[in-house]
Amino acid sequence: MADMLKFVDRSQSYPAKRDATARAADFREIAERYAPPAAEDQAGRCSQCGVPYCSVHCPLHNHIPDWLRLTAEGRLREAYELSNSTSTMPEICGRICPQDRLCEGNCVIEFTGHGAVTIGSVEKFITDTAWAEGWVEPLVPGPARGQSVGVIGAGPAGLTAAEYLRGHGYDVHVYDRHDRAGGLLTYGIPGFKLEKPVVMRRVDRLKEGGIVFHEGFEVGRDATLAELRARHDALLVATGVYKARAIDVAGNEAGGVIAALDYLTASNRKSFGDAVPEFEDGSLNAAGKHVVVIGGGDTAMDCVRTAVRQGAASVRCLYRRDRANMPGSQREVANAEEEGVEFVWLAAPERFAVDADRVTAVRANRMRLGRADASGRRAPEVDPGATQDLPADMVIKALGFDAEELPHLWNAPELGVTRWGTLLVDPKSLMTSLDGVFAAGDIVRGASLVVWAIRDGRDVAATMHKWLKAKARAGEKVAA
């Protein structure tokens, strides 16, 4: 039995981060994984509390105290199997989940002042060890059911649902517009947070399990939604949300003002060794430039840290609220500051200065926090007469994402949407307004966390399985 409850005399210790100067020169992850003794020691700090708030606040409700205890006892294979039982991508969640807002932020011993158990780092350690030791088993499809499912979108929600449905014995086809599966895991999140081989080995496992991937496939161009419905017994829409939110200021159309996802995708393609003309000609390359990133979420943090690694002359992040009210991870802010990013709090762009059709500076209004808005956060308002000019030959808009107009793009006007443009689904079945067409992930809930997309993929796979079984039984009765 492990020696647990050591949070009083055993200090919290995360895996050591590489020196900021060294890590800012490459796209490798910034910290190595634990060595086994360190992982066991840190797992042994868990208090094994009666009400595990870490699990309660995890969207997947992972069995966190249980696999921490197994890790502390050195029973790593059992720890992996338990971790894997609730998550299709535990090592990915261990890397990119904002644990400071979820499991670790709600750890009981965090409230005592002793520092939370390092749950994310232990989760990463467990599954990385499983891959290294060959414990990660192949995806074995269930007995063939004679029914097929089409999944539109190869991000975390789509991949999760595809895995569970294949395990139930369905023929599963995944359609994605990109040339590699993974969605934002592949092209949106930089390698210093999530190295790409970690994603690709998950995709390869699904391919080896018989899931068919149609990459470079765009619904509306390569097939209509109606044609896909005719091809499969059920469809899942898991496209995510990719439409960049606009910023309505003068100079917005100038050269050098770019969307965050375009910028991050170009950088990630370079990491794969792809030819990226927009990177080579400097359009999506921050090298030698004064960069201003507008936004305060995790995408903005990805952009500023990418710009540092590309050799920008300066990198500033402009955010209209203060540090305490930003939506992004505080850990990511700290990492960015260590790497040389300057944060300009309580500031919002008034206009972009333009010369010869290219941005040269950002005129920013100073802001102050007024009364709380409907969300409970204090609303930013302009502080009259207070402005500042920031030099900029690249401005990256990282203001979040909205849903694309899928009914229009797919020529499917009967596909119901909400007033935000996300797909409207039945809350129990997760079916859209079209019979046999389900939806999950960000295209339903709006831009959110990867861990929520995995949860949604798991949930929709269960409801689709139930619906497909009923459809098969009905077909048998008609045949009889």
Uncertain runs are none
Mean pLDDT equals 95
Q: What general form does the structure show?
A: globular
Number of helices: 19
Task: Name the strands of the widest sheet in spatial order.
Answer: 3-2-1-4-15
CATH architecture of the largest domain: 3-Layer(bba) Sandwich
Q: Percentage of helical residues?
A: 25-40%
List the domain count as a whole number: 3
- The chain-level structural class is alpha/beta
CATH topology group of the largest domain = FAD/NAD(P)-binding domain
State the total count of DSSP E strands: 15
Cα gyration radius (Å): 23 Å
Distance between the termini: 58 Å
Main sheet properties: 5 strands, parallel
Just give the CATH class of the largest domain: Alpha Beta
